[in-house]
């Protein structure tokens, strides 16, 4: 019975999706690092540059400030992409963090930094401050997928910066993009109750990418619920920098405020008129989502206090895994495959051990550490060069 089989398979897929995405304690430690002070200071600097239209000194100042921040955090892949329109020019900023397992596949998190008719505290200082906070926290956190943090210009003139980026770079370089995650106008309204965020899915032509967008947007909604205090609303992706990507068949999702502010594109789009508490919650939700989309790799030294002296590296590993236990007094170590079959074991644990992984097929393994009655396991990825 073909119909029955189809329904059964659909049911299995649905439950896998629902149960596959659970609260992750390590992601939560990163969400907890999202700082209200950092967000407020970035947003304040952003607003104080004034109106940042393409070609203006204010836009140039804001661009240089963004570059300086990324450099101060130690990012090295910082590119400027020239944008030209109506006799004016400026730059998109693209900062790349390389993934450990899929270095050539990108999660793009983007938002525009140009503003029109005002300082743009909400539109889009809010998204800009959140992207910066993600980049600050994730600098030294390994992710399986590469991340591109992109600050577009000339969005307010008709998505010109993102259209030119897709045309000049994405298509000629045939970039492998897993997801474009756009953040635009998530500042809320000061004095209002801002307790809901709209998660945006692609409902436009072409339709080939719509179901994937729906899947990622559902995951985004789950992340909002898991890692912030906000409620979710499902909306349609339109009128922002994901559009040039979605038109070329890429998978997009986005965040936009549900309680829509009347101030954007006016001189009233100021720090006084946004809700900093709401921006903090959107930033927490975004951090949970980026951990999920880029697949942050857990660091056992952070998530398990009993084994906090143990360093395990590199991960992913090619032919030799190093375990440094220092003062942790590990009594036994073994490496298993995902079925639990022991592939390597040692009960004579020295302060530094080297485990030969050269013969293991590429894949996921578990390193189990025991200390008296305590045990902990860490996911190890074998990836031969
Ligand atoms: Zn905007």
TrEMBL record:
Residues 312-382 form the Secretion system C-terminal sorting domain. It comes from the Bacteria. The keyword Protein transport does not apply. Residues 1-20 form the signal peptide. Keywords: Hydrolase, Signal. The keyword Signal applies. Gene3D superfamilies: Zn peptidases. One of its GO terms (biological process) is proteolysis. GO terms for molecular function: metalloexopeptidase activity. Residues 92-285 form the Peptidase M28 domain. InterPro entries: M28_fam, Peptidase_M28, Secre_tail. Pfam families: Peptidase_M28 (PF04389), Por_Secre_tail (PF18962). NCBIfam families: Por_Secre_tail. This is M20/M25/M40 family metallo-hydrolase.
């Amino acid at each position: 019975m073909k119909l029955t089989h189809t329904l059964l398979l659909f049911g299995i897929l649905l439950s896998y999706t629902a149960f596959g995405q659970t609260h992750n304690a390590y992601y939560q430690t990163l969400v907890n690092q999202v700082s209200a002070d950092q967000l407020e200071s970035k947003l304040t600097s952003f607003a104080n540059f004034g109106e940042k239209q393409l070609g203006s000194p204010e836009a140039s100042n804001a661009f240089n400030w963004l570059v300086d921040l990324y450099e101060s955090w130690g990012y090295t892949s910082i590119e400027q992409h020239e944008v030209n329109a109506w006799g004016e020019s400026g730059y998109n900023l693209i900062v790349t963090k390389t993934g450990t397992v899929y270095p050539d596949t990108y999660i793009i998190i983007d938002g525009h930094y140009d503003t029109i008719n005002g300082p743009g505290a909400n539109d889009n200082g809010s998204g800009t401050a959140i992207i910066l906070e993600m980049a600050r926290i994730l600098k030294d956190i390994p992710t399986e997928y590469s991340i591109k943090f992109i600050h577009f210009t000339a969005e307010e003139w008709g998505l010109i910066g993102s259209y030119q980026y897709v045309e000049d770079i994405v298509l000629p370089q045939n970039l492998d993009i897993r997801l474009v995650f756009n953040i635009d106008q998530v500042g809320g309204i000061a004095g209002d109750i801002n307790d809901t965020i709209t998660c945006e899915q692609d409902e436009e032509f072409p339709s080939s990418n719509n179901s994937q967008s729906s899947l990622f947007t559902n995951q985004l909604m789950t992340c909002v619920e898991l890692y912030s205090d906000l409620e979710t609303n499902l909306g349609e992706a339109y009128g922002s920098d994901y559009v040039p990507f979605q038109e070329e068949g890429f998978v997009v999702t986005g965040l936009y405020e549900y309680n829509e502010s009347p101030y954007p594109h006016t001189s009233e789009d100021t720090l006084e008129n946004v809700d900093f508490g709401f921006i903090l919650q959107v930033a927490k939700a975004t951090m949970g989502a980026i951990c999920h989309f880029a697949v942050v790799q857990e660091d056992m030294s952070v998530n398990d206090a009993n084994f906090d002296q143990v360093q395990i590296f590199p991960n992913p590993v090619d032919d030799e895994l190093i375990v440094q236990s220092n003062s942790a007094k590990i009594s036994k170590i073994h490496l298993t495959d995902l079925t639990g079959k022991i592939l390597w074991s040692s009960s004579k644990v020295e302060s530094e051990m080297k485990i030969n992984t050269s013969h293991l097929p590429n894949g996921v393994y578990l390193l189990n550490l025991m200390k008296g009655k305590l045990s902990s396991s860490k996911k190890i990825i074998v990836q031969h060069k």
